[in-house]
Design brief:
2 copies of one chain form a homodimer. The first copy, chain A, is mostly helical. Chain A is 81% helix and 0% strand. At the A-B interface, helix 2, helix 3, helix 6 and helix 7 of A face helix 2, helix 3, helix 5 and helix 6 of B.
Chain lengths: 226, 226
């Protein structure tokens, strides 16, 4: 019985990693399509999403069956609970990559507004956060999870910087408004990916340490857009 | 043993409903602050968030203990798994109400752009969706969950309509850009609340029927912003 359970845990982990690597690929390809202004690349993102959605259902289903049939305790229970949560975060990251692609489709109807530097930078950070959060999960490594959490500030800062810059464009020339809006929305899609990777890290820390680090004292509300 | 378990399930349900009613109040008060341009109301939203965050941790903790100590089967297991998921959706709805409040704080630095009609309408729909999704959960009512799912289209349509209208404002007068952006972001905050209520409905249907209705065939990507 125990051996079957371990085998099923390994299979579950593999499915989750497959989903994670699909999500990472979706971010990479969506941003490539944006930077190279190549709409055909976006089709790959939409195709990947179908597989992600199937995995989303399959992983939930496998997790529930493991809970029901094996009634796991302690770390195994926390592992499965973490899997259910991480599964939902990965699906949402993939959704955001789809949103990037859809916003890119609108953007590509117009001539290029400006060369893109900060948005590809945000995408790199988001991909690394996703990768590291999953590595932390697999290796049950709360230190890596903690280090990855800190990366999220970089995304927030870049998002704010992009917003300010594009606001200047829009104010100076209303002809840029639609394109600037697309880019603002894309930067927010990327920032939300970071939020989901952050949630994964928090789930990892809870799984390993049984300690809930969510909702620490927050700084007072700033005058940022949210 | 069984009676203690039932008592604990009831307590869990009560905590989740408390969280739901806090989230609903946060939406109501945030939009009241926006419509009446009364920044002092927003403080209530930030205060509610603290309680929501505590409940978020408490509900997860209670759920995990129930899973570990009672090893529930079938409908009880699905009820607890649904609670863990709904808990996370409610926390995110509350987060969005906080974002509405923060965007409102920025907006209130400027004179009024226009009387608000569609945004309060969106807030009403979001509140009703939240309320009905929780009622569906409590009454294990998949029909109500299904009916509530359909409401989400109204939010999407209103969001698109608001976007188009505000785009016209921005193009005509760059002096309105910052305010219009605030309102666009607020409409997106409200739309995301609807997405989370939708997730709650899907969790309810899965809980009651053991049937996963997520990810049906989607229509082709439109040229909407995402």
């Amino acid at each position: 019985m125990e051996r079957l359970f371990d085998k099923e845990l390994t299979a579950l982990k593999e499915r989750l990693l497959r989903m994670g690597s699909l999500a990472q690929n979706m971010i990479r390809v969506a941003i490539k399509g944006l930077v190279e202004r190549d709409e055909s690349l976006l089709e790959e993102v939409f195709k990947n999403e179908e597989e992600v959605n199937q995995l989303h259902i399959e992983i939930d289903d496998r997790s529930m069956k493991l809970l029901a049939l094996h009634q796991p305790m302690a770390i195994d229970l926390r592992f499965i609970a973490a899997t259910i949560k991480i599964n939902s975060e990965l699906e949402r990251i993939a959704d955001q990559a789809v949103n990037v692609s859809q916003n890119t489709q609108v953007l590509l109807k117009y001539p290029q507004l400006k060369p893109l530097i900060d948005i590809p930078r945000m995408a790199e950070i988001a991909q690394k956060m996703l990768n590291d959060s999953l590595e932390a999960f697999i290796n049950k490594d709360p230190d890596l999870a903690q280090a990855t959490l800190a990366e999220d500030d970089k995304l927030d800062d870049l998002k704010d910087q992009i917003f300010r810059e594009l606001l200047t464009y829009m104010m100076a020339d209303p002809g840029t408004i639609q394109r600037a809006l697309c880019l603002i929305l894309i930067s927010r899609n990327l920032e939300r990916m970071g939020d989901h990777a952050t949630n994964v890290c928090e789930d990892v820390i809870y799984m390993v340490q049984g300690r809930d680090i969510r909702h620490p004292q927050k700084p007072p509300a700033s005058s940022r857009f949210h």
